[in-house]
User: Fold these one by one.
Assistant:
Number 1:
Amino acid sequence: MNMARPDPQQPLAGEPVLRLRGLSKHFTLHLRGGVALPVLSDFSLDVHAGECVALVGPSGRGKSTLMKCLYGNYALDAGEAWFASSAGAIDLAQATPQQLLALRRSEIAYVSQFLRAVPRVPALDVVAERALAARATTPALNDLDQPDPGEAAARERAAALLARLNLPRSLWQLPPATFSGGEQQRVNIARGFITPARLLLLDEPTASLDAANRRVVVQLIQEAKAAGSAIVGIFHDEEVRDAVADRKIEMEPLKEPA
Ligand SMILES: Nc1ncnc2c1ncn2[C@@H]1O[C@H](COP(=O)(O)OP(=O)(O)OP(=O)(O)O)[C@@H](O)[C@H]1O
């Protein structure tokens, strides 16, 4: 066994990629006199490599909030969120902003309905950039028996994904700021899937897509699972959910604030 070459897709046998224990989160509603709105309370979950867990429950149960806490957009109040990174286990609830940014570049991908991209960067580069950033920041990826894609190869992969997602070629060199919702979402999806993320967070990845593109996304998710990604997703489209989810986790209602 070569200890210097950890496979980022293979955590220790039997160990989950994501181990959540006792997560709690509230929002303080300043416009309502500072009242506390509890959103997550004592939430626990394990997600293994190659597994897709769908968060289900009515609107407002905290599904998106949980995803944003795992991606580091929101701080948690309590609990542990252990992530088996290629460099070892890290508690996402305690991770520093620098650690979170490094994980975002290569190991944790988040695909939401909305694209946040640097202005004036063409769609193709928005997608390719993630592949280049991952290679630059994750020594483990460089150690794998894979050729360094370099910039041209990263663009080639980006182009292949955009073509697969039926984004018109005429848009590839344009910045996505003016794209339609569905076009932006496909750029977002291509960016999320261009490198094999160890943890994929999918918040309504097919919300603005037509049936043909939904099928492409289902295939991409199935391929990511086969490659060993652990996936947490919110899929309001039941057909998509049934096609990709191994388990459903019902988000329980919490008490209303007094
Ligand atoms: N930044 C925020 N500030 C204050 N309250 C928030 C914030 N984000 C979410 N909430 C509240 O937290 C609760 C959970 O919201 P969240 O978006 O996580 O629900 P959800 O289950 O994903 O809903 P949906 O299915 O409609 O997307 C809601 O009551 C929402 O109003």
Number 2:
Amino acid sequence: MKVFTAAQIYKADTFTIEKQQITSDALMERAATQIFNWMHVRMQGAPVKIHLFCGIGNNGGDGIALARHLFEHGYDIAVYVVKYSDKRSKDFLTNLDRLKDRKIWPIYMDADSDLPEIHPNDIIVDAIFGIGLNRTPDAWVAKIIQHLNTSKAFILSVDIPSGLFTDSVPEDKEAVIKANYVLSFQVPKLVFFLPETGIYVEQWEVLDIGLDAEFLMNEKTDFELISKNEVLQFYRPRTKYSHKGTYGHALIVGGSYGKMGAVILTSRAALKAGSGLVTAYVPECGYAILQTAIPEVMVLTNGKEAIEAIEFDMKPTVIGLGIGMGIHDKTVKALEHFLKANKLPLVLDADALNILSKNQDQMDFIPENSILTPHPKELERLVGKWKDDFEKLEKVRQFTDKRKVVIVVKGAHTITFFEGRGYINTTGNPGMATAGSGDALTGIITGLIAQGYSSLQAAIFGVYIHGKSGDISVENTGYQALIASDIIEGIGSAFLDLFKVPEERPDTSEKDG
Ligand SMILES: NC(=O)C1=CN([C@@H]2O[C@H](COP(=O)(O)OP(=O)(O)OC[C@H]3O[C@@H](n4cnc5c(N)ncnc54)[C@H](OP(=O)(O)O)[C@@H]3O)[C@@H](O)[C@H]2O)[C@@H](O)CC1
Ligand SMILES: [K+]
């Protein structure tokens, strides 16, 4: 699913109105009706107080139109108009008149108004600002927002939490609604998925308001959301007359005294992801450990307690490099020497990234289409410090463009970057913030490349499978007890899940995993 900017959404809006020969009011009515239906299905007429806080633009107009539907179905509502500007939109005014026709009189709020009492069991509909927000809300509006945030009532935001910009981070962190649920029109917004702004969105769902399908399909976007549908498109089935050689040979280079477990995790994950053969390349102290831990994996050694040279007499399909490798001087030299001679695409992780960050001149030797999988600290060393999430994404985009590599920016929503585009993952959970989770990911991605997936596909698919496996495993362990080995054990279930028929849903909208 594509992720549009605010400008693109306005473009889709205009295009749709022209092509479908409808009024903007009709589109607003669709939006309000969709939200009403969503609420009505869940509330079934329950006598819960619903406070609707509406702005004076089209987001407010959605709220006002929704109030009419709720009223007509007997819901107990209170409507507030937050008058932050005199420039009321046409469709807002039309809907306000319709409300007044039904003898519903909103409470107008300005800088001097008292804050209304809200009970924790009430429901708040937040329709103050939508994607039209273009500056920080005034202090008195921020006060209302804080009042709603501290009310403990369930907050349902229309389109986007009020105070959250669509394409940048908020300056005043207190002037943003913390939504329990966001019903977003047609497309999710990038800010839902970034660490600094995702905190305002507990759950989200997209509502289809019938924006022109052709426009949505043809419009190019900088970001795409990756769910099952997207990864299924490039899944490579196995064929009857294939053999283990068909599925490649992954070489996993890493390990040092005390960090051999990382290589076990990565090698195992590469096998579980389907690599035909896996060889681990470790220092001698890891030989018995590896051979005992995973009988399916072959082992090559170099150096005693750390790798001193990376040379081998075999032809791997792909090399995963850096896990648990350490940054011993001899290892640094070995990596430099190896990079200068190597032509194979690499999956670079952990200490390989740390070494490269310190020796930027060696970056020139990273082959095109290699994959880098840094965690936040490693990423900072790689691309430099950033002031906010948007600058981070820009720096990563520039780095991937310049080096022609794939970068996997790990996080709650891992984003894979390649050729100027970001692919946002939707699987995974907080239990996966655990030792060795990244080693497992490196193994999965390496294992997929071994089988012939392109670097970009392997990164996107690998991140998806890794997260899905974590989601399946956490059902049995809970967040705290989930460990990297559980994630690896779950890889098989994650693959099987790709082909499960989705459960029937009451609506057709997409949900956050
Ligand atoms: N996607 C779609 O196709 C559909 C979208 N729909 C809905 O429309 C929503 C977008 O509506 P919108 O363009 O009227 O903007 P909205 O967010 O209501 O803001 C209103 C105005 O406030 C102003 N303003 C900005 N910041 C400010 C500040 N800090 N303090 C004070 N004022 C500030 C600014 O005007 P300005 O003063 O800059 O001229 C802005 O124009 C969208 O989120 C969705 O809910 C649906 O109806 C149907 C189809
Ligand atoms: K809103």
Number 3:
Amino acid sequence: NVAAQGRARVPLWAHDPQAAEALARDRENTRRLPGLPLAAAVAPTSDISVVREAEIVLAVTPAQAIRTTARAARPHMRERAAFVICAKGIERDRRKFLSEVAKEELPQADVAVLSGPSFAADVCRGLPTAVTLAAHDEALARRLSEELSTKTFRLYRSTDVRGAEIGGAAKNVLAIAAGMSHGRGLGASAQAALIARGFAELMRLGRALGARQETLMGLSGLGDLVLTCGSAQSRNFALGEALGRGTSVEDATHGKLAEGAFTARVMVEMARAHDVELPIAEAVDAILSARLSVDGAIEALLMRPLKAED
Ligand SMILES: NC(=O)C1=CN([C@@H]2O[C@H](COP(=O)(O)OP(=O)(O)OC[C@H]3O[C@@H](n4cnc5c(N)ncnc54)[C@H](O)[C@@H]3O)[C@@H](O)[C@H]2O)C=CC1
Ligand SMILES: O=C(CO)COP(=O)(O)O
């Protein structure tokens, strides 16, 4: 809907033909964004060859589906079209960032990352939102941020692609921890401590992987961490909250896409490979893999040796 502002036609591809038909019929995503109709210019389809029309493709699938989607788009994408990754996560099987996945699958495209604090429903309602648009090429970042910004959806440009994607991936894992603390009734002080120590983990990992500090402290890092760790509107926070209340991992992860559940393990593996300690992310991974209970994780975090605040 944002892209439809000022454009006559915005094709919207869905991989599931029934979903595309339902969107075309109802002009609304009745399950995920009820009460928020599609703009008139949005044209749902399940034919991925529509990317042929596009100079800008917004890739908004689950993170683990970015590779197959990019691969399917490859024969149809124009030379130098922009492939803007809006998913937040890291490829689990090959331990790759999504910009790396896109570059491998779409050599003809210019890859960018759009990430930051923005619940889809807020954006669709026209509530004020500000996010990061990162591309290695400054001129591309500038062009995309100008073309995709509206009065209420403001894109700040960056050339730190890695920083933008680390923030978006890591905050989901940390939001699960924040949700657990809330669901377990640990109180507002614990919540604030978790966000601050979670941010320390995000910074440590980001620095080890070459991200810039200002990106990690910006919209796509700290900004999105604060949003996601502080709102039950977040699916990651809601997943953690359910676990904190005692719901089983199987029941809690069912139904809605919570990217942190897919990112936790690969984030911990990447950190270990770079000798970076991430106790909160490790606890989330251990709980999701049923190696640790929520109470066991709280106990383990409280028992950690006292150390300097870094
Ligand atoms: N919903 C939100 O507020 C925000 C979501 N994101 C990110 O956007 C990405 C997508 O999230 P949502 O749209 O919210 O999730 P969603 O669950 O609402 O929609 C995901 C869509 O992907 C489709 N899909 C599932 N498997 C697929 C596959 N193998 N190939 C292609 N498409 C497939 C589903 O049919 C569905 O239409 C996630 O990485 C999420 O972190 C980022 C910012 C905000
Ligand atoms: O990324 C988001 C907000 O910036 C959406 O958060 P959830 O995926 O946790 O709902």
Number 4:
Amino acid sequence: MTADPSVPGADPRPAGAVLDAHLVVDRGTFRLDLPLTIGPGEVVALLGPNGAGKTTALRALAGLIPLTDGHLSIEGRHLDDPARRLWTPTEQRPIGVVFQDYLLFPHLTALDNIAFGPRRQGLDRHRARQRAADWLARVGLAEHARRKPRHLSGGQAQRVALARALAVEPALLLLDEPLAALDARTRLDTRAQLQHHLAGHCGATLLVTHDPIDAVVLADRLVIIENGQVVQEGDVATVTARPRTDYVARLVGLNLYRGHADGHRVLLTDGFHLVTGDQHAGDVFVAFAPSAVALHPGRPDGSPRNTWPATITGIQRHGDNLRVQLGGPVTVAADITPAAAAQLNLAPGRTLWAAVKAAETRVYPAAAAPADVAAEP
Ligand SMILES: Nc1ncnc2c1ncn2[C@@H]1O[C@H](COP(=O)(O)OP(=O)(O)OP(=O)(O)O)[C@@H](O)[C@H]1O
């Protein structure tokens, strides 16, 4: 599905933004072209499929790869501007970075890992260690001050890495998949702690993640890139309610189709018709949740306005339910309870009838409306 060009073009430039950047980076045949503005205290999640350019954006912001074009300013200070041959080395940028695998100095204690940044900023040894001790206490690890990284658990190392990044009081905090290396339980606790620390951070934060839960819990605004370009951005509620690409729809767990509406009927691009609760005219998206899809062994009678024969192509666990992938005139995902699954005798290749009530569908114009574009931070 192609991006609506009006979406990236509508990037806001809030007055007093901490980060004001247009990141253009050429890497062989790949080009990142990402306008990005983040306000004080704002947390923006950068999401996208593999190879979309998230790491490239993060590395460009950190000064680990140069911009090909565009510009980068933090708190009004111009750091990168290739047209003017301006580039600022990593250590001179007012940033803190938490990498996916933390990259703590293995030979330094937890305390000295955190004190390292403040020391480089010019604090004397005593004050740097005091600040580090304060941060260790804030992340709940005061008693682990003298431990080396190899004696810390994954969750503890993550907290030390966060304290190390925040101890330099960065204007821009960069988080690269900060919870990805943790097991599910530790991840839950650490996410809650991270949320607490981000709420107290008055600089800007960019969170790179694959995980929609991290993004929804931690971010104020989502920026979604595909093939190096912004395909959708906005506040969490808007993006999750109105996905505009297949990737975003999968991310937020909705079935999404594009078609042409004429009243209550939408003709999809592959020739199938859906009946919708709302009336529309023109090019639209139609979205509905997998839980809105009912499955029947035979053609259902009665109220659902949309029914079609569908063939099971896959079955996965999804929370307490099962998510059934179905092919047929339209590709659809359906969530059903284990009890319903037992009655239906589910198996790949089996044909059932899918039904979706018109009232369960959500229809919105395919052309981006102001509500679909970037929210003011
Ligand atoms: N060192 C490099 N030299 C040339 N091209 C590169 C280099 N590193 C990455 N690329 C290309 O840049 C594009 C973007 O990669 P990037 O790692 O930024 O994506 P990503 O969104 O972080 O992906 P993932 O989620 O898989 O980490 C890809 O097409 C990749 O092949």
